[in-house]
Amino acid sequence: MKTRAVVVRAVNQLSIETVELDAPQADEVRVRVRAAGVCHSDLHTLRGELRAQPPLVLGHEGAGIVEAIGDNVTRVKPGERVLVNWLPADNTCPACLSGHPNLCERFPKTIFQGWLPDGGSRLKTSDGVTLKHYLGAATMSEYSVIDQASAIPFPDDVPFDVAAITGCAVATGVGAVIHTARAPAGSSAAVIGCGGVGLSMLLGCRLAGCHPIIAVDVLDRKLEFARRLGATATINARQNDVVSALRALTRGGPEYVFDSVGAATTIASALQAAAPAGTVVVAGMHAAIKDVAIPAGALIFQNKRLLGSFYGSARPQVDLPQLIELYRAGKLPVDELVTQHYALDAVAQAFADMEAGVNARGVITFE
Ligand SMILES: [Zn+2]
Ligand SMILES: [Zn+2]
Fold first, then answer.
1. Cα(310) to centroid of ligand 2, in Å?
2. Same domain (yes/no): 206, 91
3. CA distance linking residue 263 with residue 259, whole number of Å
4. Global confidence as pTM
5. Average pLDDT rounded to a whole number, residues 115-144
């Protein structure tokens, strides 16, 4: 069948094309996509900065309706609403069996490259060029074929945009707080970077009962989003020395610092600012692009902990439904993260707005 999709034929070449989508294989489902989040990882991939290289169809946050299923599919039914989990673990490797399906051994050779779990693709251009499925998801498309382990059912009363961003930004941000760091109630926390992941970290801090919760960014507009979502104080990093400002607001430094950026400067600031015996959690993708020097003295002489967090240390089959239930219970206001919707044809504008810090989270919607 045909589907209109956001195609990257080569680095920095963004186009919207009608492409061919093959039928789902035995373990796969075809989803009619209704919402696709616009994430920094998509932009990094457009620029050739991450592992998956073009030609590919972009998008990895998504939610929609199952339309067709392969012969082996048991987890979902046609007509069911599903959100996309871009880490469909095999549940057989040592990482999976020891409780870390976010680190499943099959990911480097499939999902990160852009092939479906069986190593193949169901997408090609009208002139016959095979396209990869970005993160095994390729959600910036009217229709997508994904592995059944990537399809997580959710109730009909949850909006598609909420479900879509729960599958990446929210899982990554909230998970960094409650799974990676396990920050206890009453602990002081700071969040560096107030994009979709950073603001989700902030929601995670609220959920955990942290206080105070301090948001750091270079744009006042994003700090305003952070205040609305529950930050008790904000610091503009262009106008203030972040380390001394964080120490002043917490009497000696936050016990937990969550870095959603992952750049050399933010990691260094986080390590310096954290309280003695404090914890720094790095989840930002800049760390995947460029190696950074670590101020190791701060780690050793003050007994600090530096933790990495990938996909919020999630066990997606358990944690994504749990996050959806927390939203339904009013404990996780994911809907407040979505500040703008875009048509598929406006994807370039959506990326430009993301870079300019216009949105908390922008979401492409389909009709
Ligand atoms: Zn993402
Ligand atoms: Zn595995």
1. 15
2. no
3. 9
4. 0.95
5. 96
